Structures are given as C-alpha cells and as structure tokens.
C-alpha cells in the first residue's frame, strides 16, 4: 500500500496498520519452546499436525519478520504447548526505507546456523519469495509434512494458496485472510436506498461497475459521494483483472486496469468522490463524516475496519455495515515461509513444521487462527477480531463488532476471501502500481491526455524497471 502521511497522528495510525497487514518497527528476541500440536479437532483428521520435536536437545528457530506480530505469536504458542522443546530467536527489521528485504536476502544467501528458519513476507513482496527471484530458498510445505489435505480441511482461501505456490508446490501461507468487502454508512444507505440491509445494498452497488455508478448517481442526488477518492476503487479493479502487469516478460495493461482511467475520470467529473488520496488526513476525515461531502463507503478487508477506521470513525461508530463488493479482490496480508535447509535436520524440521502448521493450518480451538478470529490472544482480555485464512475457523467464530452495529463481519468476509484472485500478481506490482496511479491522477486532473498518460506510464516502467511494453 502507498504510505503518504501529513501529520504525526497519521504516522502513529499507519504504524498500527502496518503491524496488522505488513510493516513494523521494532526488534526483539525471545525464547521458549515447540512440541506436537493438536492439529485439528479430530485426531484422525488429515489436517493433523506433523509430529513435533521430541528430542532432549532444545531446538533454536531463527524467526525473521518485519513487525513484532508473528514473533509475539510465539508467546501464545508456547503457552498452549507446555511440552515444547524449542526456543525462538527473532529478528525484526521494519520495511520502512526498504530495509527488510535486503537484510533478509543477505541472510538467506549466507545460510548457516544463523540463517532464517521461518521468515515472513507481506503482499507487496511475497511473489519474490514464493515464486520469483528468491523462491529457491523456500521449502515446499509438503517437504515439511504440511499437505494439500490440511489446506483443504482448514478451508484456506484459494487466492492465498495460489500466491504462495510455485509450479504446483505450496511454499507459503498466511494466517490472515484479506479478501475485500464494501464498507458503507447505514444512515446514508437508508436515506438513499430505503434500507441498510447488506443483502439489499449488495444488489444496489453491484455486481459490476455499471451498477456501482448507478448507485453513485443516486447517492449524488442526495448530496453524498460514493467513495472518498479514486484509490478506493483501485484495489478491486487491480485484483479483478484477468492478467497481471507482466506477461511473457513485457509490460501488459489488462483492459480492466486500463478502465481505471475512465472510471477514475467518471468519479471526478461527476463529483462522486471527494478527490482524496488514501493514507492522507482528508481520507481519514471522510471516515468520520467530516469531509466536504458525506461519503458512503470504502473498499477494504477486515484490517481496514479494525486498524484504520476503528480509530477514525468517531461519532459514526455503529453506523457502518459490510457487504459484498461489485467484484472480488484482496488487499494486503502476510505469508510464512520456511528455509529449505530446515528439512536437513529432523528435529528442526519437526519444530518448524509444528509452528507453521499452528499458525497457518490449525483450525482447532487451540490453533492460532481461532484466537486471532475471536480476539482472544490474551487470556481474559477481549482483543481485536480479525478475518483469518481458515474459513472453517471463521464459520465457527463470532465476528460481531460495535463499529458495524453488531453485524457479524465473517458472514461477508468468508465469501469475500473465496472470491479473491491471486493469479494476477507479479513481484514488481508495488512499483508499477505507484507509477500507474500517478499517471491516472495526471489524466483525471486534466494535465495530460489519456494516450499521453499511458505512453508516459510505459516509458516510466521502462526507465525504472527496464521492462519494455508489449
């Protein structure tokens, strides 16, 4: 995600968001232990965890991440695995200033006893480590005893599997699910459409962008904008495209992504938005209803609700709901990979596999995702409820939150995760997306023609990444 901030409060907010969906800023090391995990509620299930480490010598797992989120999970893991025989040595390097990837690359290449055994990658660069230049360092999950049946039995969203796979071999999975929904104001829905029911609103705004813009016109007649800025529709457009930016080694502009030029201009020309940019004070203001015109909604995953909107909606808390978007998409997420060399040591292999399984595939009552979904990571304390990778867990979890007026958000995010696609990504997306969105804004602002914006975009990609156009 792009990070443009205009005030110290915005910086603090974004720091918490990055901890939830990628990013971070502190370092620590912790120790304690890894044993056999219960795997699933049925001991005979094919999703049962691999055998844990039963050797007498304690295993050290080198864990690398860009926030303290995964390292903090080790505390809960050890508390729920009292017979564990492992210690975690954590390295945390923030993604700010591009520091994490070069350090991780160097550590992976160096190998040896200090090499990362488990490492994290966020959506912006997971393709590099799961499918791209650095993918050869990653172990196949199957070589750790983590099977396709485990993935199936946990109901892991296919987009997450596709992103974490290379040549049919799974190399990475996440614990979050970041399929996107449309998050809208109930009061504005009632005033415009006569109802705030999510099923009815779903049919007002979609499926498809024609229906969405019909809704935008109805909202405008009432004095409301449908979204805050054009960035709000970019993620659904980007992730619903048929092909990614690179096809056969050349820059490819998918027709659905090219359409962003026209849809963005339509939003601006008709006053359907407040012309904000995401991650700015004006964007946050529209969450609280204090922008230049009331804004109907935002596109995003559960983390946008939990870690961004939750601190910004102010008096509009409870006046929000979620429904299915006009098209499926995802935004963000963190994946776990294991170094291929862990398979050379049976004790380390078992310990690494057990922890990775507990985080990414364990759908039992004592699996990480059950605690994560229900906000029960800290015993006796109600924490943040979040969408997780396992649809089995979410189907049994309580996703009701006050911001949504008590709506169970998991009723929407389970199908949202299933409708997202992970087949249109490349390892260059973060850079190319930034260039594309800048050119689209130049066009919609009237600073250049449509053809000129496309031509300049192609040239910038060539100059920046040395990738020629089709």
From TrEMBL:
Tell me if Translocase is a UniProt keyword of this record. Answer: no
Renumbered to this chain, region (Disordered) spans: 28-55
Bias (Low complexity): 28-54
Q: Which residues form a coiled coil?
A: none
Task: Give the matching InterPro entries.
Answer: Bact_solute-bd_prot1 (IPR050490)
Tell me the Gene3D superfamilies matching this sequence: Periplasmic binding protein-like II
Report the leader peptide range: 1-19
Q: Spell out the protein name for this chain.
A: ABC-type glycerol-3-phosphate transport system substrate-binding protein
What is the taxonomic lineage of the source species? Bacteria, Bacillati, Bacillota, Bacilli, Bacillales
């Amino acid at each position: 995600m792009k990070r443009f901030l205009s005030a110290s409060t915005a910086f603090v907010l974004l720091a918490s968001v990055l901890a939830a969906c990628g990013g971070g800023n502190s370092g620590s090391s912790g120790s304690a232990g890894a044993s056999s995990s219960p795997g699933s509620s049925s001991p005979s299930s094919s999703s049962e965890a691999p055998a844990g480490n039963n050797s007498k010598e304690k295993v050290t797992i080198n864990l690398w991440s860009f926030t303290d989120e995964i390292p903090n999970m080790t505390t809960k893991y050890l508390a729920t695995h009292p017979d564990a025989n492992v210690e975690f040595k954590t390295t945390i390097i923030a993604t700010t200033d591009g520091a994490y990837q070069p350090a991780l690359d160097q550590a992976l290449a160096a190998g040896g006893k200090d090499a990362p055994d488990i490492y994290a990658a966020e959506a912006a660069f997971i393709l590099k480590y799961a499918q791209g230049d650095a993918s050869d360092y990653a172990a196949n999950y199957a070589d750790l005893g983590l099977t396709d049946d485990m993935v199936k039995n946990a109901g892991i969203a296919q987009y997450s599997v596709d992103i974490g796979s290379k040549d049919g071999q799974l190399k990475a999975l996440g614990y979050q699910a970041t399929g996107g929904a449309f998050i809208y104001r109930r009061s504005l829905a009632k005033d415009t459409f006569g109802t705030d029911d999510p099923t009815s609103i779903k049919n007002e705004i979609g499926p498809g962008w024609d229906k969405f813009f019909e809704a935008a016109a109805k909202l405008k007649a009432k004095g409301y904008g449908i979204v805050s800025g054009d960035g709000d529709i970019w993620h659904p457009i980007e992730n619903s495209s048929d092909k990614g930016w690179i096809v056969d080694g050349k820059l490819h502009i998918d027709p659905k992504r090219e359409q962003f030029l026209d849809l963005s201009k339509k939003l601006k020309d008709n006053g359907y938005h407040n012309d904000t940019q995401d991650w700015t004070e004006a964007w946050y203001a529209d969450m609280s209803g204090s922008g230049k015109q009331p804004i109907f909604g935002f596109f995003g995953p559960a983390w946008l609700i939990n870690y961004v909107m939750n601190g910004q909606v102010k008096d509009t808390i409870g006046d929000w709901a979620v429904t299915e978007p006009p098209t499926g998409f995802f935004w963000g997420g963190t994946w776990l990979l294991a170094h291929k060399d862990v398979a050379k040591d049976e004790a380390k292999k078992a310990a690494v596999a057990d922890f990775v399984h507990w985080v990414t595939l364990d759908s039992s009552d004592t699996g990480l995702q059950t605690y994560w979904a229900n906000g029960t990571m800290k015993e006796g304390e109600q924490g943040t409820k979040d969408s997780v990778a396992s649809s089995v867990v979410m189907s049994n979890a309580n996703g009701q939150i006050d911001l949504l007026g008590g709506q169970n958000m998991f009723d929407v995010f389970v199908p949202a995760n299933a409708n997202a696609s992970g087949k249109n990504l490349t390892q260059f997306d973060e850079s190319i997306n930034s260039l594309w969105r800048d050119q689209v804004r130049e066009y919609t602002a009237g600073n250049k023609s449509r053809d000129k914006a496309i031509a300049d975009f192609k040239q910038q990609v060539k100059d920046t990444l040395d990738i020629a156009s089709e």
